[in-house]
Amino acid sequence: MKRSTKLLVTGISASISLTVAAKDLTVVSWGGAYSDSQLKAYSEPYMKMNPDINIINDESSAEAVAKLRAMNEANNVTWDVVDVVASDAIRLCDEGLAMEIDHDDMLAPGVDGSSPEDDFGDLIVSECFIPQIVYSTTFGYRTDKVGDTPPTSVCDVFDTETYPGKRSLEKRPINNMEWALICDGVAKDDVYDVLETPEGQERALAKLGTIKDDVIWWSAGADTPQLLADGEIVMGSTYNGRLFSLIEEKKQPVAMLWDAQVFDLDGWIIPAGLPEDRKQAALDYVYFATDSQRLADQAKYISYGPARLSSAPLVGKHATLGIDMAPHMPTDPKNATNTFLYNYEFWADYRDDIDAKFQAWLAR
Amino acid sequence: MLIAPLLIFVLITFIFPISDMLFRSVENDIVSDTLPRTVVALESWSAESQEAPDEDVFAAFYTDLYLAQEYKTHTRLGSRLNYQQTGISSMFRKTGRRVKRFDTDVYTDQFEELDAKWADPSYWASLMNNERVQKQLPETASSYTAWRELMVEEGDNPDAETPEDFVYTSLYRDLMHLSENGASVRNADVRTAMNAVSGFESVSLKEQFIDAEDDWADPKYWATIKLYSGNYTPGYFLNAVDMEQTINGAEVKPENERLYGTLFARTIYMSLFIMGCTILLGYPVAFLLANISRRSANMLLILVLLPFWTSLLVRTSAWKVLLQQQGVINDILVWSGLIDEAGRLIMINNQMGTIIAMTHILLPFMILPLYSVMQTIPPSYVRAAKSLGANDWTAFRRVYFPQSIPGIGAGSILVFIMSIGYYITPEIVGGTQGVFISNRIAYHISSSLNWGLASALGAILLAVVLILYWLYDRFVGIDNMKLG
């Protein structure tokens, strides 16, 4: 009750005057276990250090791009810091909706003294993007439904003879098209060269067509874990953190198939055109929330890898389960024997085109 | 007077936003706003030539792109054009990064070497104030004005800064043009420069662009820019009906990219089917409610309303638990031996799932109007019919049913129009075959950001509803509808 009145009051005051609400900081993220991990690792310590700052949590990251565009058009941006996946950060940057970041100037140096740009390295995929975690999209399977020969390769997803039953895939072309081509015999390095051509796209869809009747298509990250827990599917793709919680926290008979996991990034952006005081407050929060220790702290609550090199040695045990988190990270050498990185440039160009074909194929 | 507040409220919260959204389906000023010079220069280029445009277009494009990347609007335009031509988005992004490093500084250097005046901001300002010079150096004037605006925008003083390379590039091109035409120039400095430029080292902007991104040599990208250079475009509407704009006019898309026709048809026939199901299921319930004692009717009405008050998401998710292959219904069937383990029914993630869940969710919207209409039918009519010799069926068919038709009409319109715009339920239980057009509209609003296409799809959906409403009025009569 207290919290909701507070929200209401700040909402009203924000709409009357932005300067009155100067001490509020609206942090937008994905909700669920992920937001909780950020709350514990970043926001709570930050508020303890800065008692005059009141962090308001918003769980709108899934619609962040559309909402920021609408706010921008209405000239009333109410968000200060927004958690988005890298491809969305690139689009927000393209649309001029996110502020450009000077990483060396605006972020904390690594705990080992390295400059932020070196510490984040290649993960800075856009001028507007402040990397936070590395996550992966990979498969989980029911250990009780695969007999004595558990799947070892992503191509087992396409093998309905050895592994009969439904599998779940995301209802969009990204990742699925790549896996289909790899399992159709395309070398990993050639995947995007093939996928660029209409023939390659047809080829990927044809490969997916071999299992089309056995697929349940998901659109929310929670779908696959639920389907696995219910026994609706034998295997399915989702984010590795979701599978971790299903396996280690909920103790379901499920195991990870790390093969051909696709790395992706998640991080912060700051909306473009904030008034100076809010911009400074947002930068101050991000400076704190992305230092080496804070990024490593987040891994205590969720199995996503910190985006800084210097954070890796600081990753410890899970806060409540007490298990070592390092072996559950997608970047752990044992898990990362066969991986690839989401190709941002390719999908920025081909997303609309391939999605149209993919959806038309689904509707057939 | 008394309705003025309501009218204003409806205008502000409903009419304005909807017209604004509908307007987006044809709006296209982003191209001519971002690339004004290029759009003009492209007028003399024809896509049928199968060749990339000439140097003039590239020079105009250089100035436009230079300014656009300063204002950070080039990537936005790239995303917009990428909806029409795949690949164009990264061309704008990549070239935008390169355009400041083009070799055009040779012009700046050569002009400054020729006369130090050309490096003097105040000389530029006074020269560009001269109307005759403006007329003789049109490209330069336009570039210089744009550059001044940019300086002011960035908080710099244009009277204290030397212009950027692109202004010198325009100056070179104007002077070359003058000297080739043998024009007479009164201003001595400009004349000196004009006589000198033919000896200048030059760079080809076309080569610079192709060097930065070789796709600029491909005429198909230029054809897209030219096609979409108007302030208004039918492109979104064409896309919404599975067509596309090409240099040969509107063409139907290849079969493997057609989607929206199927989805529109599916949305309408499934909505009609759901409407039919609610009539079949709702009519007996409403009849029962209207013909038992008021006390029991109120009790039963609660049962109808209870799910109505439950969250939509909860009800949909409950259906998921019931219908899935390892769900409650299948478990009971297997347990009772009606089906075996391998024969578990597939009742969800297809059209059946959508129909079952939506029929359930929309049922109250059929029952309530039916009930309120049936309540007003005096029981004496049926009794009178029977006393005149009609049997139960005839009395119902000839006397009761016709009087309940206004309720069916009201319920049907309510259910049909609600289901045609349904989004959450099909998304959760519809799989691939049971999703509606609104799911694609939502995708284009929140995911692909193609708001123009989303608006066009929405406008078509609105038109379909209005046409069906008109047909209903024509054949059944809207006066015949009764909500209570």
Automatic annotation (TrEMBL), chain A:
Organism's domain of life?
Answer: Bacteria
A family per Pfam: SBP_bac_8
- InterPro entries in UniProt: SBP
Stretch forming the signal peptide:
1-22
Keyword Signal appears in the UniProt entry: yes
Sorted alphabetically, which keywords does the UniProt record give?
Answer: Signal
Listed name of the protein? ABC transporter substrate-binding protein
Q: What is the lineage of its organism?
A: Bacteria, Pseudomonadati, Pseudomonadota, Gammaproteobacteria, Oceanospirillales
